Amino acid sequence: MRGIDELAMVDDPAWPELQGIFRASSVPVQVLPGDVDEGRRCLVQMQVSARSALGALALHSGGLLVDDGWVRVFGGGSGSAAGGRLPSLGQVNRFPTDFAPGRHPATGLVVGHDVLGGVFALNGGDPAAAGRPGAPGQMTYFAPDTLAWEAMEMGHSGWVSWLLSGRLETFYDGLRWPGWREEASALDLGQGVSVYPFLWSQEAHADLAATSRRPVPMREVLGAAADFARQMGPADPGFLGDA
Question: What is the mean pLDDT of the chain?
Answer without folding.
Answer: 92
